[in-house]
Each structure stands twice: as C-alpha cells, then as structure tokens.
Design goal:
Length: 162
C-alpha cells in the first residue's frame, strides 16, 4: 500500500497542474486570429462575406452617424473599406470576449472613433457616390460571387506553381 502512494501523489499532482494550466498561462489559450482579406482563400471568403455584411448592416443601425460618407453603399467593392471594417469587427469580438478586461470596452470605442475617421478619409478619396441613386452599386451578391471566383482562380494558379 505504501508504494502506491507516491504514484497516486504524482498522478494527482499532474491532474492538478493540468487543471491549473489554462489559468496560469492565459496567453497560451488559442486566440482566433484576425481575418486578413487580401490573403483569404475562396472557401474562407465565402464564409466571411455574409458575416461581415451582416455585421456592417447592424453597425450602421446601431450607430446612425455612420452615413454613406463613412460607409458607402458600395463598401464591399473597396478592399480598403473591407479590411478596415473587418479590423473593427475583429476588435469588437476580442474586446467583448469572455475573459477580456473590463477596460476593453473603452478600447473598442477608441477603435470605433479611429476607424470611423479612417473610413471617412478612404470614402472621400474613393469618391463614392451618395444618395438613393447610389444605394445599389454593383449588387452585393454579384460582386461577392465574382470575388470568390477570382480567389478560386488565384488558388488554382498557386496550386499549379505559377
Ligand atoms: Zn464606391
């Protein structure tokens, strides 16, 4: 009986360590990386487009000040706007994640202020149209289908070693 005790002790200690490990090393918990649109493959793009579009629509409802001078109707046609909006979406996800510090809500609002200013600049530089006649640029569905096809061709080219 006495010889079993050290083994049981070791087993118990290992189990305790394993249970404690995630709390002791919060950095080691796998984080979801941000979405990088320029390098996204066709399948990932197919998954991410509706998620981003839905989030952008909701954001414009939540913040009425985000008019077409900040996020124009044709935002999805411009990579600079897509990437900036995605950065904001990723920031919000991380800021309100379980385990985030209470101060990260403030970080999110700083990001919202900064990215909104950036979007306003980008949109002015792009000279996107405003008003009802511009509400439908190239329809979203068509643009996304073309974008996914373009990414599929690019992936095929890479696979061929071009
Ligand atoms: Zn535009």
């Amino acid at each position: 009986m006495a010889t079993e005790t050290p083994h049981l002790d070791i087993a118990r200690r290992l189990q305790e360590q394993r249970q404690r490990a995630p709390r002791q090393n919060p950095d080691r918990v796998e984080a979801t990386p941000p979405v990088h649109w320029p390098s996204l493959g066709p399948l990932d793009a197919q998954r991410e487009w509706p998620l981003l579009a839905e989030w952008v629509d909701a954001l414009r409802v939540r913040y009425q000040g985000l008019d077409s001078y900040v996020v124009p109707a044709c935002w999805y046609e411009h990579e600079s706007l897509v990437v900036a909006l995605q950065a904001l979406k990723d920031h919000e996800r991380v800021a309100y994640e379980k385990g985030s510090p209470g101060s990260s809500g403030t970080d999110w609002h700083r990001a919202l202020r900064d990215i909104t200013a950036l979007l306003r600049e980008f949109t002015a530089d792009l000279r996107c149209g405003h008003g009802a006649e511009y509400a439908q640029g190239e329809p979203y569905e068509e643009f996304v289908a073309e974008d996914i096809a373009r990414r599929r061709r690019r992936a095929a080219t890479v696979a061929l070693g071009q």
